[in-house]
Amino acid sequence: MTVEKIATPVADVEALSRNASLLVEEFGRAALAYAKPLEEGKPNTAMAESVGEVVRTLGTVAERWFADPQKAAEAQTLLGGQFLALWGSTLQKMQGESTLPVAMPDPRDRRFAAPEWSSNPMFDFIKQSYLITSRWAEILVDEADGLDEHTRAKAQFYVRQLSGALSPTNFLMTNPELIRDTLREGGANLVRGMKMLAEDVEAGKGELRMRQTDPSRFEVGVNLATTPGEVVFRNDLIELIQYAPRTETVLKRPLLIVPPWINKFYILDLNPEKSFIGWAVSQGLTVFVISWVNPDARHATKDFESYMREGVFAALDAIEEATGERRVTAAGYCVGGTLLAVTLAYMAATNDDRIESTTFLTTQVDFTHAGDLKVFVDEPQIAAIEAGMQNVGYLEGSKMANAFNMLRPNDLIWPYFVNNYLKGKAPLPFDLLYWNSDATRMPAANHSFYLRNCYLENRLSRGEMRLGNVSLDLSKVTMPVFNLATREDHIAPALSVFEGCRAFGGPVEYVMAGSGHIAGVVNPPGKVKYQYWTGGPAHGELGDWVRAATEHPGSWWPYWFSWIEAQNPERVPAREPGGGRLPSLGPAPGTYVRERA
């Protein structure tokens, strides 16, 4: 019998003993940080509520299976048969025979990249056992009878979370890489990891705020959000930034960008190589960008109408003051695009024609096919969120950031858990992940309106939304629309964006970019990394549109600019920010964006 052993160094018993003592000290520090809110009478009830929701949902799935004993027995037989095959395969492997695996990880799954996961029979058995069990759990959810669509989607989501958390790669004694590292370093990796864990719990004030990058390597305005410009307007909700021109002439019609308030605007201005804002300026656009305030209790009553009036409308007024131009083209990203669509419907109802064409970037207006975030949206969960916001007047940015991370746990949670706290390695500097962690709070009134009217009741696409006592109808929006989706978007799925095109009453050009919600948008022409597809208006089914569409290598940015220029090609001398009727209030990126949650 031949069993391959892990190639590990000889353990330094003295070092292990010494580091075990240090590990206990750091664990005590982490435990104290976690317990501090409890001592202060501020228990975190969100975790208990989340666990309760998981138990209720998966309990419903179990009830469906137990209601049919024959079907439950068949499911058990399926699992037992796979494990019998795995036992047989493992015995053959331990005897030196070559065997085919019973379960293989997805080729894109990087968790089992270490050779021992396949070459060592013990770890191969652990790996395949995990894959068999997790896939069996997914089958139970997929094939449970009598589940409504929302409950099934929630159960699928929770099974993914549990299977991601219970992966053997996340535990010291079942991960050959971690065993090797721990023995080689005498446990020093675990001490470093526990120290980082304690720091991250302290930073989260009793909750784990897992670092995904090295925050000390980035500073907004220094190596992030560096495109030159000036803040030319400020109110309680926004700072409006006008960017300095790079061309002698510019398009007569200015561009107003409405970013999401869930994150900060500089995703569109990460660095000079990846700046959509900087690139747009270099093409001859006068670019204005809204920078939303990071709200606190003072902003609790700021609702969707406030964000329209004090956000988009205030920006339009300021642009006219700064440039003399009454009419603009606008672009909205994600929930900023949803706000822009609501604003356009309001403007159509009130005969306000200041926006002449619009670009939507991964924006949903019809939430029928909304992404995985819908699992967080039903009446009990929204009521719980509203109750939590009522105490402080806002939703903590970390809660939304955690929700986004949970959509891709095997990419955005567990690799960092293993790397940081078990390998004891500080994460590498990555500008995109720094932005991802730079979360913003959300006012209670605004967030509640958004969840209920869009995700829960889908009122905008049905023509049932009202704002400022005005009925909103997107079919009255007849201006040209450029509607960008991304193929792998799990937040605003390509299908959801495609279906939303039908709500507008004018010409809508649907374009689909490669990759996902962020990388598909922030895809500069200088790096031919992803592709995009064009095929004109969104007619018929998405699959038919894709099959008939034309694929183009590289960035969609130049194609978009040609669309913008075609709307109104007239040019005028370049406009300097702060040189008109609106003086500069300070250099870009302003002060609101620097407020950390």
UniProtKB/TrEMBL annotation:
List the NCBIfam families. PHA_synth_I (TIGR01838)
Q: Which GO terms describe its cellular component?
A: cytoplasm
PANTHER family associated with the record: POLY(3-HYDROXYALKANOATE) POLYMERASE SUBUNIT PHAC, POLY-3-HYDROXYBUTYRATE SYNTHASE
Q: Where is this region: Disordered?
A: 572-597
Give the Pfam families listed for this entry: Abhydrolase_1, PhaC_N
- Record's keyword annotation contains Acyltransferase: yes
According to UniProt, the name of this protein is Class I poly(R)-hydroxyalkanoic acid synthase
Where does this protein come from, organism-wise? Methylobacterium oryzihabitans
Q: Which domain of life is it from?
A: Bacteria
What lineage is this protein's organism placed in?
Bacteria, Pseudomonadati, Pseudomonadota, Alphaproteobacteria, Hyphomicrobiales
Q: Which UniProt keywords apply?
A: Acyltransferase, Cytoplasm, Transferase
Q: Which GO terms are recorded in the biological process aspect for this UniProt protein?
A: poly-hydroxybutyrate biosynthetic process
**Chain's gene name:** phaC
- Domain AB hydrolase-1 intervals: 284-523
Could you give a GO molecular-function term held by this entry?
acyltransferase activity
Q: Which InterPro entries match?
A: AB_hydrolase_1, AB_hydrolase_fold, PHA/PHB_synthase, PHA_synth_I, PhaC_N
* Keyword Chloroplast belongs to the record: no
As for subcellular location, the record says:
Cytoplasm
- The residue ranges of the Poly-beta-hydroxybutyrate polymerase N-terminal domain are 108-280
